[in-house]
Amino acid sequence: MPRNILPVKLNEIREGLVSDVLHNGMGVILVDNTYPVKLVDAFLGETIQYQVTQVDRLSAFGQVLQVLKPDSQRIDAQKAYLLTAGVAPYVNLSYDGQLNLKQWQVQKAFAAHSVKVDVAKTIGTDQPTHYRNKTVVPLKYQAGQLVTGFFDRRDKVTLVPMVDYYVNQVQIDAAVGLVRDVLAQFNTPVYDDGTHQGAMRYIMIRRGYYSHELMVVLVSHESELPNEDEIAKEIAQRVPEVTSVILNHNPRSTNQQLTGDNRTLWGQAEIHDTLLGRDFVIGPNSFYQVNPKTTEVLYQLAADVAELKPTDTVIDAYSGIGTIGLTVADKVATVLGVEVVARAVADAQINIANNHITNAQYVTADAPEQMQRWKTEGLKPDVIFVDPPRRGLTTELMDAVVDMQPDRFVYISCNPVTMARDSAYLLAHGYQIKGSVRPLDQFPQTAHIEAVALFIPNDDTSV
């Protein structure tokens, strides 16, 4: 078929079998075995009647009209608004079904890179809804009312109003509504992307799962909000558990939600929470895992596969505020952390002091460069932990690991696609995967998943 003749037409109604589910949660129907049509709320093996809503040369998008042959694990959660906004693409799949699908997706990712490995069953949670300890919510005046929610994934202009976000802690959802009402009370101007006028862009809420300390961050295009002192005092009076009200100045015309420019309007500049018995300080910009219950399971799993010894020297790369390294510090001889974000390292230093840890040091540096520096200085780590962003590891970081030759390299990933890619590189450069890749469901109702793998040198017989 010529490339300019597409196998589907806009608005036509078709039927097809879902043969894939992408890592953004969208099901895929292949037309003529080559042309993908992507669908929300379509699961593996289902037969779907759909309408084509968008067409381009490489792929199309469709709207599910009817599920003709459903997955045996399909349910009706009666929360279509979550699909409209893209908040919970797996909401109509039972939780067991979600765990099975995520295991399959990890298997698929490794198979795509010809990495033969056993993928264990996905570790689930007993709290698959209302678990997130952080949210960043846009707001907009619609029909004369100040509305909070998320934008319609189709037009990206209409805000889908929400009260129950389904994945946030219920206290966070309540706080979003209360803060919105306070802003409406003061007729606070909201930023408009078209005119570049206005102030408020987002409301961010963070809450300590164990501490119950709650932070409100008002993200503003302007450096000052009208009536900001009165707004902060009203929030402090009306929002339960509030410990901190902060203004984040974000004048940038990008999708970046927060900048590093924070000013405390009321209360403390940070909140605290506990992770595996350690106290952590959490600021507006701190990277801190959003599912506190499964984070403890995740980090304990990483420590377990590392088979830590009291004599071990551990490197915590991409260390953030020190959550991984500091939770294992009492099990090893030395922890060395490296993180390129200076504010995160400053928080790590506070966390070291608050927890009276004497065997950990954290430095601000590019991780591959610092690891090469440590190697030149004669450092030989026994264990390296990495927990990189979704884009995965750089070649430079992996080369640094290979050069340092740790006995155990523990890879914690939030993206099995990049994890599989990086695994192929490590396998080609002298390492092997010991045991299974272990998926863990850190983000129920969504397509995201964490996984842990242990790499050891090919000639390693000591572990």
UniProtKB/TrEMBL annotation:
Coiled-coil ranges per UniProt: none
Any single biological process term in GO: rRNA base methylation
Amino acids binding S-adenosyl-L-methionine: 289, 318, 339, 387
Keywords from the named record: Methyltransferase, S-adenosyl-L-methionine, Transferase
Cross-referenced InterPro entries: MeTrfase_TrmA_AS, MeTrfase_TrmA_CS, SAM-dependent_MTases_sf, TRAM_dom, U5_MeTrfase_fam
Domain TRAM: 7-66
Homology family: Belongs to the class I-like SAM-binding methyltransferase superfamily. RNA M5U methyltransferase family.
Protein name per the record: 23S rRNA (Uracil(1939)-C(5))-methyltransferase RlmD
Organism the protein comes from: Weissella diestrammenae
